[in-house]
Amino acid sequence: MIIHAGCGIITHMDISVLSTTNDIEQLRTLALAMVQKAMSEKAETEKLRQRILLLEEMLKLARQQRFGKKAETLAGMQRSLFEEDLDADIAAVESQLDTLLPAEEKTAPERPVRKPLPAHLPRVIKTIEPASTESCPDCQGALRHIRDEVSEKLEYIPARVVVNRYVRPQYGCTCCQRVVSGDMPAHIIPKGVAEPSLISQLVISKHCDHMPLYRQQSVLARLDIHLPVSTMADMVGRAGAALTPLAESLHRMLLTCDVLHADETPLQILDTKKDGKARAGYLWTYVSGEKSGPAIVCFDSQPGRSSKFVVEYLKGWAGNLVVDGYAAYETLAGQNNGLMLTGCWAHARRNFADLYKANKDPRAAMAVRQIAGLYRLEKKIRHRPVEKIRQWRQRYARPVLEKLWQWLEQQKDACPESSALGKAIAYTLKRKVMLSRFLEDGALPLDNNRCERAIRPVVMGRSNWLFVGSVAAGERAAKIMSLLETAKMNGLDPHAWLTTVLQRLPGWQVERLDELLPLPGFTFAGRESCQ
Fold first, then answer.
1. Measured at the alpha carbon of residue 137, what is the angle toward residues 135 and 143, in degrees to the nearest 5?
2. How far is it, in rounded angstroms, from Cα 348 to Cα 375?
3. Pick from 30, 49, 302, 363: most CB atoms within 10 A?
4. Within-domain flag for 431
5. What is the mean pLDDT of residues 22-27?
């Protein structure tokens, strides 16, 4: 037996005994120690290699989440100013070239069909006649009308502000000296200078278009209208107070739905008790299911992410709640026997999709492809009746899902639990029951994207207003946004709806409050017909 001391296997070990003893037992002990040390070093090396691979994987995922493209975002809404300026520069250069270069006769390239302009917009007819309608400019022959070539272009007319002057003639009685005059219309701000339409504009610009009041002040100043920010804030605050009963009624109507979606997003809240320092709050979002009646969105601003907030908001409700993997919802389900959680396949898919984008892992690609099979089926059957959807899922989605579960179980034992793939597999398998629940009920959706779409405007606006000024301000904003987002989801113009409601509210009967909710069937009739 030849032993090489220079190979480094027996470092820090006394090998002089190899040349000074012939004791077989001693040599066997030494050889065993050398083998054990080599195996230990090999295991340590493998452990370090796995650690390096894990860190590299985490770095790639972090880069993907920070800089990579995300399938859930709308590219057109998140383009940088640089890209917009670049497109404008290209258009300007092309315009100059069209002017300088001679026109060339060439076949027009195929272009997508332009979407027609909205039919509800008023049309202004501008007829362009030739210089002469009697004779041809070439041969002087008589002309006859063949057809009209029609093209449409959008024109923007800047906002127009008018002053409504209320004149109330006063009449005196010749007998009792009583003075009689007409009554001023009821108003949420009786002595204010703003009509409901202006208050609506301030509220919608703030909560839908994400424009803080100080920016709106400069916009109004261009129209030579100078309103202090404190005055505008007072208008928004009073509008929020007037809309609070409507928001509470909307909340009660939400709790009548059998299927709800829930999600939450961070919201910075200034703490007035701690010198105005910002603390982490959350805006909880609840949306009615697509198959559960009219679309309803409710926001709830809270100073934390504890399960007690969702427990309180959904108190007394029973049904199916579509959620992601946040533990607060599991706590809720544990306290409410009538509530069942339904998982979100978009969250499960996202873990595999991010991993594939980061390092092109073929196993992640396989998982994404199998989940895509579920979505292809949903795209075909989503508009069918609930029972038909359940039948199709049982027939076509169940085999795909069973195959996916089997594949995930096989892969679970083949990859480290601490790896990104292992975590994605563990996340999915842990929620197997929740993710399979959609098979048994056609009213249950495949994912929680409906709620994420409702919460997206808040996420976009957060970069403009950064935080809310107090806990009360967060609650007021949540109620206003609930009503406006519900109006948008039901196809109502938020400004027209809010203006009508602010006109009606001062004289509206409390028992008829539900008639003012922004739901399908809302009527924009004049005030006289609804008193």
1. 30
2. 13
3. 302
4. yes
5. 73
The whole-angstrom separation of Cα 69 and Cα 354 is: 10
pLDDT tens per residue across span 203-235: 999 999 988 899 999 999 998 999 999 999 999
Q: 499 is written with which tokens?
A: 């203006």
Q: Are strands 339-342 and 319-322 parallel, antiparallel or unpaired?
A: parallel
Res. 72 pLDDT band, cuts 50 70 90: very low
Distance CA 495, CA 493 (A): 6
| Residues 354 and 57 sit within 8 Å (Cβ to Cβ) | no
3-state class (DSSP) for residue 123? coil
Which of 425, 447, 469 is a domain's end point?
447
pLDDT digits (tens, 9 = 90+) for 168-178: 999 999 888 89
Among 296, 300, 302, 310, residue whose Cα is nearest residue 484: 296
What's the domain count of the chain? 2
Hey, what amino acid is at 42?
K
CA-CA distance, 503 to 531, in Å (whole number)? 11
Range of the domain at 398: 345-447
Tell me the Cα Rg of the chain.
34
Instruction: List phi, psi (to 5°) of 60.
Output: -65, -40
Domain presence at residue 125: no
HSE toward the beta carbon, residue 46, CA cutoff 13 A: 7
Whether the predicted pLDDT of 25 surpasses 90: no
How many angstroms separate the Cα of 351 from the Cα of each of 127, 244, 368, 403? 58, 39, 9, 19
Confidence category of residue 78, pLDDT binned at 50, 70, 90: very low
